[in-house]
């Protein structure tokens, strides 16, 4: 196998391994991120509503 | 003959139902324009990785990267390696994206206004929109063509128009209602479905064709040029240099990309998203490139003809078994929907935030009116993309078309951004010159290429040299324009 063949073989293998690993990691941690993002937005909406009531 | 069956249809149906429901459900959190456009700047790292990766991989990406594999062999994945490097370096150093995120803006032109004034903001918005509309104009068509080819549906009558309309409606529904928030949540689901599909199909293809056969096919068709871009007659130094400029500019100034930095909850999160997603951009070219090479190795000569972007879907339609076909179609739908929704929102945000800025200042819109305007703009953009996709006669390399149209905005926006962040003396004369030079050169090339009388000349110049000229011309115009403006002193000189 030439250097060029070897380079693309290693790169293709690295892509498959890296991509599979990251997909699992992001699938798990992404759910946590979405939950915390929505929780923060919910809190923001509530405090905005309270501010509005206080102003009134 | 395609293997698309009711099992595959069910997989696609479940995916569509899940993603649409999730996208529409989060609309209740959208009460402010900032939430609609940048998700209230609450995005964290892993959601950012999913969103950036899903946004930057659509059916059109899969088509042109596979076409690169079919036409150029492994060397066709060179832009992916350059892109991965650019993301890594920018993420690690925070070059430009750090001051951009600190500025607290929603779009790039908004940042330019602080330095170069409202006229430059408006002009920047205009070139971003012209470049973006021309660039994204072919996405819906490519998506429709891919789905028709791979699922084996007859392309006669109005099948393409119906497929494109269905794609658009499904994307527009949740983007219009939930903006960036819906885009982020659906991007996450779409990333998981898309990645699972890409990995499964790639492993099946390699098992089906054999890695040795793929290497031999490239060797026999393209020789050393199939592995090394510098000796490939269709690529060479000009291709590598131009693509380095384009991918770096894309990382720094492409509105759908930087919207992820601007939506990040802080600067560090934005930088981590870029650094950790960088290798995805190598996979983004290598994986579909393998699919294109498999088509090259397997399809009989003459089946594809000049429309080489059709080779990969034709090949996949003929080899994938029942069940896997459904996974592939769901994955590609996921990829396309995430890209289309993000792009619609990104360009909509520039129209609202920058092109309509003078109007907004006069009218003094409420948050509710602002959200309504944004929704209307996204809907109008969707209709434009539908008609443009049907009308534009795309020929030749899709990647070349995309890089040239992107350069209209990329060349000048990169010059402006770097000057805005790191050159204290840069002024509005230089900025205006850079915008004009960066837009006129690639637009002139596109016109030369379309007109039959000048087509030959355009082919002789080639897209690479025209693109390099746009980037260099824009930089020179910035320097010359800045130096020509009378009475300009840096802060240091003024003090002295």
Can you offer a commentary on this structure?
The complex is a heterodimer of chains A (56) and B (496). Chain A is 95% helix and 0% strand. Chain A has 56 residues and is mainly α. Chain A contains 1 helix and no strands. Chain B is mainly alpha-helical and 496 residues long. Chain B has 23 helices and no strands. Chain B has helices at residues 6-25, 33-38, 45-55, 59-72, 78-93, 97-102, 108-116, 118-136, 139-151, 159-209, 211-222, 236-253, 255-263, 267-277, 280-298, 311-319, 324-355, 357-363, 367-391, 398-422, 428-450, 455-484, 491-495. In chain B, helix 9 packs parallel to helix 16 (311-319) and helix 12 (236-253) crosses helix 20. The longest helix of chain B is centred in the middle third of the chain and has 51 residues, at 159-209. Chain B starts with 5 loop residues before the first helix and ends with a helix. Chains A and B meet through helix 1 of A and helix 3, helix 10 and helix 15 of B.
């Amino acid at each position: 196998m030439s250097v060029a063949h070897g380079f693309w073989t290693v790169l293709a293998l690295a892509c498959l391994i890296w991509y599979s690993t990251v997909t699992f990691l992001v699938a798990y941690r992404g759910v946590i991120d979405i939950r915390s993002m929505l929780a923060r937005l919910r809190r923001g909406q509530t405090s905005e509503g309270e501010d509005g009531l206080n102003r009134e | 003959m395609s293997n698309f069956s009711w099992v595959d249809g069910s997989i696609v149906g479940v995916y569509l139902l899940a993603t649409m429901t999730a996208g529409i459900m989060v609309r209740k959190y959208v009460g402010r324009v900032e939430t609609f456009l940048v998700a209230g700047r609450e995005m964290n790292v892993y959601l950012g990785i999913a969103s950036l990766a899903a946004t930057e991989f659509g059916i059109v990406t899969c088509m042109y990267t596979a076409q690169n594999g079919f036409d150029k062999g492994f060397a066709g994945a060179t832009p992916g390696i350059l892109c991965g490097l650019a993301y890594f370096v920018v993420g690690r150093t925070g070059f430009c994206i750090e001051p951009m995120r600190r500025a607290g803006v929603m779009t790039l032109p908004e940042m330019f206004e602080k330095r170069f004034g409202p006229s430059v903001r408006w002009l920047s918005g205009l070139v971003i929109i012209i470049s973006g509309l021309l660039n994204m104009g072919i996405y819906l068509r490519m998506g429709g063509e891919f789905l028709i080819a791979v699922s084996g549906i007859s392309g006669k009558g109005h099948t393409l128009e119906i497929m494109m309309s269905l794609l658009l409606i499904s994307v527009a529904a949740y983007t219009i209602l939930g903006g960036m928030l819906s885009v982020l949540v659906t991007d996450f689901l779409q990333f998981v479905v898309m990645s699972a599909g890409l990995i499964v199909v790639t492993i099946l293809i390699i098992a089906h064709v054999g890695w040795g056969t793929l290497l031999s096919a490239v060797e026999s068709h393209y020789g050393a040029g199939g592995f090394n871009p510098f000796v490939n007659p269709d690529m060479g130094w000009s291709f590598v240099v131009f693509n380095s400029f384009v991918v770096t500019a894309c990382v720094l100034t492409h509105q759908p990309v930087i919207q992820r930095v601007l939506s990040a909850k802080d600067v560090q999160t934005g930088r981590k998203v870029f650094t950790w997603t960088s290798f995805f951009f190598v996979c983004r070219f290598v994986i579909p490139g393998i699919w294109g090479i498999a088509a090259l190795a397997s399809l009989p000569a003459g089946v594809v003809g000049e429309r080489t972007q059709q080779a990969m879907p034709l090949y996949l339609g003929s080899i994938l078994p029942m069940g896997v076909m459904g996974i592939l179609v769901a994955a590609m739908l996921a990829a396309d929907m995430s890209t289309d929704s993000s792009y619609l929102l990104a360009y909509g945000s520039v129209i609202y935030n920058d092109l309509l800025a003078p109007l907004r200042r006069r009218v003094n819109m409420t948050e509710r009116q602002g959200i309504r305007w944004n929704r209307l703009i996204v809907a109008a953009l969707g209709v434009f993309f539908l008609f443009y996709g049907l009308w534009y006669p795309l020929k030749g390399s899709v990647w070349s078309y995309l890089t040239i149209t992107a350069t209209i905005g990329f060349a000048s926006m990169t010059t402006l951004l770097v000057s805005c962040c790191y050159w204290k003396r840069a002024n509005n004369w230089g900025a205006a010159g850079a915008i004009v030079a960066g837009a006129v050169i690639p637009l002139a090339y596109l016109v030369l290429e379309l007109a039959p009388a000048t087509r030959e000349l355009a082919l002789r110049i080639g897209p690479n040299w025209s693109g390099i000229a746009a980037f260099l011309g824009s930089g020179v115009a910035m320097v010359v324009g800045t130096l020509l403006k009378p009475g300009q002193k840096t802060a240091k000189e003024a003090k002295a």
